[in-house]
Fold:
Amino acid sequence: MRVAEAVKARRSIRGFKPDPVPEELLREILDIARHAPSNCNTQPWHITVVSGEARNKLEDAIVTEILSGKAPSPAFKPGDADLDGVYKERQFDCAMTYYGTMGIERHEKDKRQALMLKNWQFFGAPHVAFISMPTGMGSVNAIDIGIYLQTLMLLLVDYGLASIPQGALAFFPDPVKEIANLPEGHGIICGLSFGYEQPGEQINKVIMDRAPLEDVVTLIS
Structure:
C-alpha cells in the first residue's frame, strides 16, 4: 500500500469485531511505529496497550467513575477547550454529522449521552492504547506525539486494522494509571481504540468532511 492510499483509507472506525490482534503482529506494528521522528530525537511518547481481561476491567472502572458523577481530570488541556470561530463551527458540524448518521436528534439527550459513553467502552474494540508523555512537557513536545500517533494509525491501516483516536480517553486517568501502569510522571495525551473493523455497522458510516485546500494551505512564490 502506498502512503497516499493509507492516508486516504484511514478513517475513525467505531465498530469493531471482538477478535483480538495476534500479539506477534501487534509487536511488529509497534516496532515499526517507534521509528517516527521527534524533535532532537527525544521520543517523548509512551504507549500502553490494554487487552483481554485488563481491558474489560478498565472499561468497567472508567464507566463506574463517569456514572458516579466524577469530574474529568485530564493532565493536559483538552483539544476542544476554548474553541471559537471556524474551529468551533467545524466541531459543531462534526457532532451534527456523527449524531445525524446515528439517527439521533439534538433533543434526545439520553441517546446522545449513551453514544458518548461508547468512548469509554472503547467502542467495543478488543484493544485500547493510551499514549502519554511527561506532564512537564508542553505543546511543542505534543507535536511529536501527533507524529507518532499518525504513524501508528497509518501502519494499522497498512496491516488491515482499524482505529479511532480519542481525546476523551484522557479525561479519567486514575483507573488507567492503576490498571495500565503508566510511567511515573506521565500524563495521557489521548487514547486509541483499535482492532478489526466490523463491516456493516451503522456507526462506521460516519464520514467527516475536510476543509477545501484553499482554506488550509497558502502557496507563495
Observations:
- The mean pLDDT is 96.
- The radius of gyration is 18 Å.
